[in-house]
Design brief:
two-stranded antiparallel sheet; alpha/beta; 39% helix; three-stranded parallel beta sheet; 5 helices
Length: 139
Protein backbone atom coordinates (compact mmCIF):
# COMPACT_ATOMS: atom_id res chain seq x y z
CA UNK A 1 0.00 0.00 0.00
CA UNK A 2 0.97 3.61 -0.44
CA UNK A 3 -0.33 7.06 0.48
CA UNK A 4 -1.02 9.55 -2.28
CA UNK A 5 -0.58 13.18 -1.15
CA UNK A 6 -1.82 16.05 -3.31
CA UNK A 7 -0.53 19.33 -1.88
CA UNK A 8 -2.63 21.56 -4.17
CA UNK A 9 -5.71 19.51 -5.03
CA UNK A 10 -7.88 22.30 -6.37
CA UNK A 11 -11.47 21.38 -7.23
CA UNK A 12 -10.62 17.93 -8.60
CA UNK A 13 -12.99 18.20 -11.56
CA UNK A 14 -13.20 21.16 -13.94
CA UNK A 15 -15.98 22.20 -16.31
CA UNK A 16 -14.38 22.97 -19.66
CA UNK A 17 -17.47 24.85 -20.85
CA UNK A 18 -17.12 27.28 -17.96
CA UNK A 19 -13.76 28.42 -19.31
CA UNK A 20 -13.86 29.31 -23.01
CA UNK A 21 -10.06 29.25 -23.34
CA UNK A 22 -9.93 25.63 -22.15
CA UNK A 23 -11.98 24.52 -25.15
CA UNK A 24 -9.28 25.59 -27.58
CA UNK A 25 -6.24 24.18 -25.79
CA UNK A 26 -5.19 21.43 -23.46
CA UNK A 27 -7.05 18.19 -23.06
CA UNK A 28 -9.40 18.72 -25.99
CA UNK A 29 -6.45 19.01 -28.36
CA UNK A 30 -4.88 15.90 -26.83
CA UNK A 31 -8.12 13.94 -27.23
CA UNK A 32 -8.56 14.99 -30.85
CA UNK A 33 -4.94 14.30 -31.77
CA UNK A 34 -4.99 10.92 -30.03
CA UNK A 35 -8.23 9.88 -31.74
CA UNK A 36 -6.62 10.47 -35.11
CA UNK A 37 -3.72 8.07 -34.33
CA UNK A 38 -5.92 5.01 -33.79
CA UNK A 39 -3.55 3.82 -31.05
CA UNK A 40 -4.93 1.83 -28.14
CA UNK A 41 -3.84 0.21 -24.89
CA UNK A 42 -1.45 2.92 -23.74
CA UNK A 43 -1.40 5.18 -20.69
CA UNK A 44 -2.83 8.02 -22.79
CA UNK A 45 -5.72 5.89 -24.02
CA UNK A 46 -6.42 4.73 -20.43
CA UNK A 47 -6.43 8.36 -19.31
CA UNK A 48 -8.79 9.40 -22.11
CA UNK A 49 -11.04 6.44 -21.34
CA UNK A 50 -11.27 7.61 -17.72
CA UNK A 51 -12.23 11.09 -18.93
CA UNK A 52 -14.84 9.75 -21.35
CA UNK A 53 -16.32 7.40 -18.74
CA UNK A 54 -16.68 10.23 -16.22
CA UNK A 55 -18.25 12.48 -18.82
CA UNK A 56 -20.76 9.75 -19.76
CA UNK A 57 -21.71 9.28 -16.10
CA UNK A 58 -22.12 13.04 -15.70
CA UNK A 59 -24.43 13.14 -18.72
CA UNK A 60 -22.20 15.39 -20.83
CA UNK A 61 -23.81 14.21 -24.09
CA UNK A 62 -20.74 12.31 -25.26
CA UNK A 63 -18.44 15.32 -25.22
CA UNK A 64 -15.44 16.05 -23.03
CA UNK A 65 -17.10 18.72 -20.94
CA UNK A 66 -15.37 17.82 -17.67
CA UNK A 67 -11.65 17.54 -17.07
CA UNK A 68 -10.37 15.33 -14.26
CA UNK A 69 -7.58 16.85 -12.21
CA UNK A 70 -4.94 14.81 -10.39
CA UNK A 71 -6.99 14.12 -7.21
CA UNK A 72 -9.89 12.79 -9.28
CA UNK A 73 -7.61 10.53 -11.32
CA UNK A 74 -5.93 9.29 -8.16
CA UNK A 75 -9.33 8.47 -6.67
CA UNK A 76 -10.15 6.41 -9.75
CA UNK A 77 -6.89 4.49 -9.76
CA UNK A 78 -6.09 3.99 -6.08
CA UNK A 79 -6.40 0.44 -4.84
CA UNK A 80 -8.55 -0.42 -1.80
CA UNK A 81 -5.46 -0.74 0.42
CA UNK A 82 -4.11 2.69 -0.60
CA UNK A 83 -4.68 6.00 1.19
CA UNK A 84 -4.99 9.55 -0.07
CA UNK A 85 -4.64 12.93 1.61
CA UNK A 86 -5.83 15.86 -0.50
CA UNK A 87 -4.95 19.40 0.56
CA UNK A 88 -6.67 22.53 -0.65
CA UNK A 89 -6.21 25.77 1.27
CA UNK A 90 -9.10 27.67 -0.36
CA UNK A 91 -12.39 27.14 1.47
CA UNK A 92 -14.46 27.45 -1.71
CA UNK A 93 -12.25 25.10 -3.74
CA UNK A 94 -12.07 22.62 -0.86
CA UNK A 95 -15.89 22.47 -0.65
CA UNK A 96 -16.04 21.86 -4.42
CA UNK A 97 -13.32 19.21 -4.11
CA UNK A 98 -15.35 17.32 -1.51
CA UNK A 99 -18.43 17.40 -3.74
CA UNK A 100 -16.54 16.52 -6.92
CA UNK A 101 -14.59 13.61 -5.42
CA UNK A 102 -17.93 12.07 -4.46
CA UNK A 103 -18.99 12.29 -8.11
CA UNK A 104 -15.81 10.68 -9.40
CA UNK A 105 -16.02 7.38 -7.57
CA UNK A 106 -18.84 7.33 -5.03
CA UNK A 107 -18.28 3.69 -4.07
CA UNK A 108 -14.49 3.77 -3.82
CA UNK A 109 -13.10 1.82 -0.92
CA UNK A 110 -9.82 3.73 -0.88
CA UNK A 111 -9.21 5.64 2.31
CA UNK A 112 -9.37 9.33 1.52
CA UNK A 113 -8.93 12.45 3.62
CA UNK A 114 -9.61 15.94 2.32
CA UNK A 115 -8.05 18.75 4.35
CA UNK A 116 -8.59 22.47 4.02
CA UNK A 117 -5.13 23.28 5.20
CA UNK A 118 -1.73 24.62 4.23
CA UNK A 119 -0.11 21.42 2.99
CA UNK A 120 3.47 22.64 3.38
CA UNK A 121 2.93 23.68 6.99
CA UNK A 122 1.15 20.42 7.74
CA UNK A 123 3.88 18.30 6.18
CA UNK A 124 6.84 20.31 7.54
CA UNK A 125 5.64 20.65 11.14
CA UNK A 126 5.39 17.03 12.08
CA UNK A 127 1.74 16.58 11.17
CA UNK A 128 2.95 13.81 8.88
CA UNK A 129 2.56 11.53 11.89
CA UNK A 130 -1.05 11.08 10.79
CA UNK A 131 -2.45 7.55 11.18
CA UNK A 132 -2.30 7.06 7.40
CA UNK A 133 1.48 7.38 7.58
CA UNK A 134 2.20 5.20 10.62
CA UNK A 135 4.87 2.64 9.80
CA UNK A 136 5.76 4.38 6.54
CA UNK A 137 8.85 6.35 5.83
CA UNK A 138 8.70 9.60 3.91
CA UNK A 139 11.79 10.06 1.80
Amino acid sequence: PFTYVDTHAGRGVYDLEADAASKEIGILQVAEAWASTGASSTPISEYLTALKDFNKRSKSAGSLRHYLGSPALAQLWLRPQDDAVLFEISQESCAELERNIGLVHPTSSSRLEIRQDNSYWWLLHGKIKHTMFEGREIG
